[in-house]
Design a protein that fits this description.
The protein is an alpha+beta fold. Helices cover 18% and strands 33% of the residues.
């Protein structure tokens, strides 16, 4: 599924990061050289967007670099999250090598 960065919610951005860290952790299994993953700092530019429905719903939307604001009164905000990845209470190990499945 192709992701439109201008419409990606904050939770979706974190889920995508989790997926990438998971890929790196799986690649670490069996590798002689591994790294312990420390705190992950994620800095995003977001907009608070109101839905056009009758309900007053708001959503933080991640915007891509170079994207233009969608309305006259929108303001971009910088959100910085510090995440401490764990797997079953243990530090996450990642590899510097990405294993490519055989074709």
């Amino acid at each position: 599924k192709e992701i439109n960065m201008q419409e990606m919610g904050l939770a979706e951005a974190i889920a995508q990061l989790r997926k990438e860290i998971g890929t790196a952790a799986r690649a670490a299994k069996g590798e002689a050289l591994q790294f312990t993953l420390g705190p992950v700092e994620l800095e995003l530019q977001v907009e608070l967007v109101a839905s056009a429905t009758a309900k007053a719903d708001f959503k933080w939307v991640v915007i891509s670099a170079g994207a233009e604001a969608s309305g006259e009164r929108t303001r971009t905000h910088k959100v910085k999250l510090v995440l401490n990845p764990q797997s079953d209470g243990a530090p996450v190990l990642v590899s510097d090598v990405r294993k490519v499945p055989p074709e």
